[in-house]
# Entry
Amino acid sequence: MASFWDRLMVFYRQGSVVTRLIFINSGLFLLLRLIVGLLALFRLGDKAWLDWLLVPATLPGLLQRPWTLFTYAFVHYDLMHLLMNMLWLYLFGLFFQRWFSGLQLVVHYILGGVAGGLLFVIGNTWLAPAGETVLQAPLIGASAAIMTLCVSVAIYRPNEPISLFLLGTIKLKYIALVMIVLDLLGFNEASMGVGLAHLGGALYGILVGLSSRRGLNLAAWADKLSFRFKRNLDPRRRRQPSMKVTYRRPKKETVNRSTVDVDQAYRDKKKADEVQLDAILDKVKQSGYDSLSKEEKKQLFDFSNRSNR
# Structure
């Protein structure tokens, strides 16, 4: 009988990209909570080390930990935060995969998170008073990345209906609009950074949606990279051996008891014939055709026939 872990892995491998993203986010949540619990149990420290996975609120902090732009969108510490984000990820992820590939979903999820993280840091840097930051807490969670998926499908298929519990059927464009408006209305000193991150994800989602409507695939580079990577890993693909070219020496023949190249012998013979022809023509010019011997007349006749071929 298969163990729970084996069945879980089968479900993960057979699931869609959305399912795998939910698995990754949930698995990291459980792992981080377990590590924090063990550290607290043995009094080995607090959860300050988590900051190495989260986007700092300052530009100098981001320059010290640039990888956090890619890691924070997979990290959650609060259970309700995780549940709400995974619910929206499942909903908008399924809609996204109706018209886009799984690879495009992963690429835009990550880049949407990067866009949100950058606007979070830039906004805190520009909007804060001199020497201060609007929000000292680092950025955590997949909200900006999910906002990218939501807005991109709303731009690409604005009139697509979606059924929500207790709310009925609503068009995608209205859901995206409400989410953006709520973020804008909620801007204050306490939530400024989070709102900016959501806005960054939404702006990138607008770019993805508009580009897709014009037939442009912003993740085409990832498709090519994935194809090359899979091709290089294919065991059936063998590198063709380089061709080796061997040059043979030209045939030799004996001319005047010496071995020379055929081409050189031909050139020498041609030159000798030209000298002989010039001598015969000079004799004709000076003394007339009748002054030629029988052998010279034959040679002149042969030269004439050869030139007319």
Notes: Confidence is low (pLDDT under 50) at residues 253-259. Strands lie at 161-164, 168-171, 252-255, 258-261. Residues 87 and 116 are 20 Å apart (CA to CA).
